[in-house]
Q: What sequence folds into this?
């Protein structure tokens, strides 16, 4: 049986991660700035935990999803090639975070 998403981990607010991911779609200047200065962009978002900051910078979308970030919004990071992601890498990391699926 699979463990429910978020079970057994400290509760964190995924709002800032979701907001950052959504802004990548709508704020072209932010999206263009991110590849050159990812640490600066991530540091500018209030409300991110240290774990969320580290996961964003590492492109660990599976972990961000486990922490409560929305998979649809995280997809923008792969769509625009941010934080070392591509659409293929995004999909691979999301699948890996699910663990084995029971038959």
A:
């Amino acid at each position: 049986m699979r463990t429910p998403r978020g079970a057994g981990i400290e509760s964190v607010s995924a709002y800032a991660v979701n907001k950052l991911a959504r802004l990548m779609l709508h704020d072209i200047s932010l999206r263009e700035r991110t590849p050159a200065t990812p640490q600066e962009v991530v540091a500018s978002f209030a409300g991110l935990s240290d774990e969320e900051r580290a996961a964003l910078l590492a492109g660990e979308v599976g972990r961000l999803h486990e922490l409560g970030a929305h998979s649809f919004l995280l997809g923008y990071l792969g769509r625009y090639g941010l934080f070392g992601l591509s659409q293929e890498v995004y999909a691979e990391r999301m699948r890996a975070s699910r663990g084995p699926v029971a038959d």
Notes: The chain has seven helices and no strands. The chain has a mean pLDDT of 88. The chain has one domain: 15-98.
